[in-house]
Every structure is written in C-alpha cells, then in structure tokens.
Amino acid sequence: MWEQRHRFITVALWLHVPGLFLFGLLTGNPPLHALAEVAPIALCAFGAGRAHLRRAARSGVASLGLFISSAVLVHLSGGVIEAHFHFFVMVGLVSLYQDWLPFLVGIGFTVLEHGLVGVLAPDAVYNHGAAVNDPWTWAVIHAAFLLAATLPYIASWRLNEDTALRDSLTGLDNRALLLRRLERALARTRRDPSPLTVLLVDLDGFKAVNDRRGHAAGDRLLVVVGERVRAVVRDGDTVARLGGDEFAVVLEDADEEVGARIARRIIDALHEPVLVEGAALRIGASIGVASAGPTASNPDDLLRNADLAMYIAKAQGRGRFCSFETHMGDDARSRADLEAELGPAVAEGQLVLHYQPTVALDSDRIAGVEALVRWQHPERGLLPPGQFIALAEQSDVICDIGRWVLAEATRQAQAWQERFDLRRFRMAVNISARHLASDSFVGDVLAALHDAGLDPSSLVIEITESMLVEDVAASVDKLAELRRLGVRIAVDDFGTGFSSLSYLRHLPVDILKIDRSFVTGLDPDRSQDSLARAIVRIGETLALQIVAEGVESEDEKAALKQLRCQQAQGFLFARALPAPELATLLAPGLTAAGGGGGAHWHGLLPPAPTPSVSPASPTPERSPTPERPPAPGRASEPAAAPAPSVVAAAS
Predict the structure, then answer these.
(1) What distances in angstroms separate CA 348 from CA 262, 345, 394, 411, one per listed residue?
(2) CB of 162 closer than 8 Å to CB of 218
C-alpha cells in the first residue's frame, strides 16, 4: 500500500516539472529561468524514485519536491496570495504517507523559504506591504496556517491507524501492526545483533466454547485471554491477536530460553478457569516458539516457524509449548510437495486399494473385506494413508479420493461376487468427515453402486463417532437415506470418541467396530475385558453386529468368541493385501484357522510384519478426528495409525 501511494505521489511530482515550466514561459520568464526554477523539482522526483533508499528518505525527498513546487508557483506568479493555496493542496497529498516526516518537511520548508526569500526578494513571496516589511513574522504566520491544515489529516490518520492496526475486540495489535513491528525489530537485530523470539499462541477447545455457549461468550473469553497474556509478558513486549483464537507475542532481546519461560507463564495463566455468564470455562493453549536466525530473517518466515512449532505442540497433546527446529521446515516443505502432487495423483491413477478380510468368528470364514487406500507415488513408493490423507482432508481433494475409493471398491466387490459366487459378502469403505458433509455424498455412493452393478446390501459405509459431532442432523439424514436403500452403516473405532448411547439410539447404525485398544491383551482366562464386554452388550441390546479390530493372538480371538463377538479383523487372520493376493483367500472352503477341509491361512500368508513407523511418517497410519486425542496405533496394518477421518484406511 505504501509503495502504491508513493508511486502516485512521485507521478504527481513529475507532472509539476512540465506544468511549472510552461507556466513560467506563459508568465513571461525566459526559458533558462523557467528551467532553473523546475530543476530542483526534477532532482527531487528522481531521488524519490530510487528504490534502494529507505522509505523515510524517499518520502522526505518527494515531500520536499512538492513543497518546492508550491514555492516555485508563488515565485513565478509574483507572490500572488492565491498561489499560496498550492501549499495546502500539497499537505493533503503528502498525508497519504500517514507519517509525521512529510508534514515536518512542509512546515520547516515554509518557514525557511518564506523567511529567507522574503528578506532577499520579498516581491517573489509577498504582494502586500506588511509581509514585505516583516518577512520572518509572516513566514511564521504562513507556517502556522500550514500546521493548522495538517491537524485534521493527522487526527484522521491516527483514527484510521487505530481502526486498521488494532484488534477491535481485544484492543491488541492486529496482524498488520505486528508485521510492522516485527520488521522494525528484525532491522534492529541486523544493526545491533540481539536475540528476538516470537510466540504463537493457539487456544485449545475454543471452538467448543463458541458452539456450546455462543459467540458472545467466545468473544468475552478472547478478551480475557488477551488480558492474561498481556499481564504475564514483560513491559515492552508486543502482544497481538492474529485472528480467531490465535495470538502472537514478540519478545525483543529474548532468546528461546526466555521465550520458553514466558510460554510456560502463558500456559499457566490460561489454565485458570474463566468466568463467563456465570459459568467457569476452562481453556488451554498450545504455543509455538521461534527465534530469528538464518531460517527466519523476515517476519513471514519467523511467524511460519512459530506456526509449525505450534502445530507440533498440538500434535503432542495440547496444553504445551514446542520450540522450532530446522527439520520442521523440511517436513513442512515435504508435506507441501505431497499436497501439490496429490490432486494430479487421483486423476493419473496413482491410488490403489488394499483389502483386509473381516472374519466370522463362529466359522472362521471371510465375511467381507475393508478397502484401504494407498498412494503408489512415482518417486517415494507405496505411501500409507497416514502420509497423505490428513493433507487431502484440508481441501476438496479428499472428496475426489472418496469418490474414487467408492467406485473402485464397489467394482471390485461385484467382480469377486461374480467370480467366486459369494453370498452375503460385504465391502466396507471408510468415509471422511468432509465427504460426508458434502452435498454430493449420497449421490456419489449411489453412482458407485449403479456403475458397478453392486447390490446396496453388499456395501458397508464406515464412519467414526467424532465425524457426527459437527452436524448430527444432516449426517443422520444422509446415512438414513442410504440405509433405507440397503447400505449398511458401521461406527468405526467405537469407544475412543464420544461413545454416547444417545447418539447410537438416533443413528441409523448396523455395525459397531470395537477399537483395537480394547482388544489388545484380552485373555479368555481373565476377567479384564469389561470394556469389550460392555460394547458387545450394547450391540446385543441395540441389535447391532459387533466387529473387533486389531486381533493379533489366539487368546484375543478366544476371548472375543466367549464374549459372543461375531466378527473380527487383525494380523492374526491377514494383513491388508492387494486385490490379486486377496483373491486367493476367497476360494471356496478357505478358512481362517483350518478345519472343514479348508486351507490354514497362516500357511498361505507371509508372517505379519511388526507395526512400525517410518521416518517419513512420524504419526501412525490412522488417527481419529482432530477433536479427540490419537488412538493407539492399530496393529492390523504395517505402519499402522493416525490420520483424521481416514478415507478407506482402517486396519
């Protein structure tokens, strides 16, 4: 904005050169005299256009040129009083800089020029006797009039500055003023090396307060947060609200150690409950700490580093702070590259599906499979969903992936049913929260079923509990419509989210899937199965089918059978396999544990790998939605675990 205004003022200054030259000729002045009058103006215009100069120098030179133009007009007109009005026009023009310097240049120039020239050649400035006889007094009078003309501009400028540079709710600096102060602080550190640290504060649970208590309560909470943050930082530190529930603190002459100490103070201050409308609201904060250095030499880089560290703090459990490290930037760039490549990957057919069997525990036969999406990256190899689904969730690419998974999974299910003459074989597909919320969701499911020729009863749509919290009514309507057509609905990871029976009573649900965290360690000879037992009983009460996830041992399988759990998934039976390998398990008579003349699965499959986390993917392959903490990694998938609302990526 400053550059745009400066260019406008510089153009106006250049236009004065030919304009005043012609005026000089028209008033009877020789060409050389007219040229000499406008030469200083041209020099000022030239200097104002030098981009390497500091802003103050460029604005000062441009302002000086404009006021010289006013003086030249007065000289060429013979001191006519109306010509002096040009000074007041220039005051309005230089007010665009919204700075004190141009006004001071104008007032100082008026006093000196009117006084000196009034003594040496009074007729060139004044055309009345009082001023000719006492030029310095009238120079001061003219400067006073000019000062009076500047006052409304200054008042307007400061009022606009308060509006444009202050947060209207909290009274703190806003992003624009923060960036300005950061730029100045960084310039000081370059001149006189000293540490500079930025804290980025993001509130934990603020959205829930807004949703449950209303925006008025949320606004009151933000005001209190601003007051508490300002109370615990040092005098002279800058506190700003960047927008929403995000705040920033600029700590000059402070290294990361000081920044960490102040971050702890902020976390402690915000841990105390806030009384809003008679209710004690508890809220926490996650804080990113970043210091100026080679990786952060400008305000944008410094805030970006603090932002990356803040997200790591949230991922580590919230209510804590994290200091920026160089590798975080590398990880962010890697994610950005993946995000840019993800859209074309769908169109170019780089996605593939693997399938994990669901086994009927009473017969050890395959009752269905669950589709899990993978990305066959041309350079990075086969990527699990934990490395790209969370990125897809941030844009509509997740809906494109969801549509592709539905189409491919239903096509494959129909092909297997025809090839192996399967009855009651079901294909399960996980749905993302964003896809479920889209207007096209029901149409996408129906289109996939129609194109594949698959009976709706052969498709299972899997959702998580947390996905329903945003808009329960809309989600229920969509799922109920599909269920009326025969599609079955499963609640995945049951017990790790909200697990409200009131939700289950109103949801069109057919299947509950017990999260692996309740399955691990089950033993038929011990009674430590209360949670799994309770979920099975809930399913029996509501006439729902129960599927256990993450079964890895015979003891767990036996315990689940004792609890009357109908079906299970896990490494004990099979890992997720590409379609050709899974097809070998669908041959008639093949069972999961031998018997009945069928082959023993463990003899056909390679040993299940131990779940691990690759260096490129520090998070597990599957995660719940961001509203709840990550569930433990799921052992039924290699590189198992977390990605919010994973599409076709259960284990």
Answers:
(1) 49, 5, 20, 18
(2) no
CB atoms near residue 473 (< 10 Å) = 9
pLDDT higher than threshold 60 for residue 516: yes
* Encoded tokens for 606: 């390679």
Cβ atoms of 621 and 633 within 8 Å: the answer is yes
pLDDT at 593 over 50: no
Q: Which amino acid is at 106?
A: G
- Tell me, what amino acid is at 572? L
Name which CATH class applies to 175-324: alpha beta
SS (H, E, C) 100-113: HHHHHHHHHHHHHH
Strongest mean pLDDT among 305-319, 352-366, 487-501: 352-366
Q: Which residues pair with 290 in a beta bridge?
A: 198
Tell whether the model's pLDDT for residue 227 goes beyond 90: yes
Tell me how far CA of residue 287 lies from CA of 322, 541, 579, in angstroms. 6, 45, 45
As annotated, the residues of the chain forming the CATH 3.30.70.270 domain(s) are 175-324
Structure-token pair, residue 529: 């199965």
Would you call 564 helix, strand, or coil by DSSP? Answer: coil
| List of residues 6+ apart from 605 with CB closer than 8 A | 574, 575
- CA dist., res. 1 & res. 6, Å (int): 9
Q: Would you call 129 exposed, middle or buried from its count of C-beta atoms within 10 A (0-12, 13-18, 19+)?
A: exposed
Sort 379 into a burial class: Cβ within 10 Å, 0-12 / 13-18 / 19+. exposed
Could you tell me which residues are beta bridge partners of residue 355?
Answer: 371, 577
Q: Which has the closest alpha carbon to 593: 561, 640, 634?
A: 561
Vertex 561 angle, CA 557 and 565, to 5°:
105
At a CB cut-off of 8 Å and minimum separation 6, what does 239 contact? 172, 173, 226, 229, 230, 233, 247, 248, 249
Return d(Cα 646, Cα 622) in angstroms, integer: 7
Q: Which residues are within 8 A (CB) of 495 and not within 5 positions of it... i.e. 6 or more apart?
A: 514, 515, 517, 518, 531, 535
Residue pair 433/469 in contact by the 8 Å Cβ criterion: no
Q: Which two tokens stand for residue 123?
A: 């007729």
Separation CA 39–CA 20 (nearest Å): 10
pTM over 0.85: no
Answer CATH for 335-594 from 3.40.50.1580, 3.20.20.450, 3.40.50.720, 3.40.190.150: 3.20.20.450
Helix axes 206-213, 215-232, angle to 10 degrees: 140
Query: What is the rounded end-to-end Cα distance, in angstroms, of the chain?
Result: 53
Residue type, 233: V
**Which amino acid is located at 166 in the chain?**
R
DSSP 642: -
Which residues on adjacent β-strands are paired with residue 567?
360, 547
In the chain, where does the domain assigned CATH 3.20.20.450 lie? 335-594
378-382, 527-531, 628-632: range with lowest mean pLDDT: 628-632
User: Looking at this protein, which amino acid is placed at residue 593?
Assistant: A
